[in-house]
Amino acid sequence: MLTLKDCFDFSDLNEDEICAIAECEHIPIISALEEGENLVHSAHGRQQIANMLLKRARECDLCGMEVHATHLRCIHKAFIARFTH
Question: So which domain of life are we looking at (predicted)?
Fold first, then answer.
């Protein structure tokens, strides 16, 4: 039987990115992992992930959740660094 950690390990996304997708899309983590895996393999999909991270960061800023917004921007920055050449 696979654990959630096993699924994270098989993914091209890291745990923070997957959890952020789950938060942005309001879906369970395992569903976010599947969606993220589908998106990360195309330039358009990677752009969708990057956009959703920044959109959620802006939403957090508006709600006064500055620390979380900063965390999401850090995830975005690391994601962009890994997937843009």
Answer: Bacteria
d(CA 45, CA 63): 27
**In the structure encoding, which two tokens stand for residue 78, read together?**
């690391």
Helix (H) or strand (E) holding 2: none
Residue type, 27: I
Task: Give me the residue spans of the domains in the chain.
Answer: 28-85
Instruction: Give me the amino acid identity at 44.
Output: H
Listing DSSP states for 38-71 in one string gives HHHTSHHHHHHHHHHHHHHHHHHHHTT-HHHHHH
- Three-state DSSP class for residue 77: helix
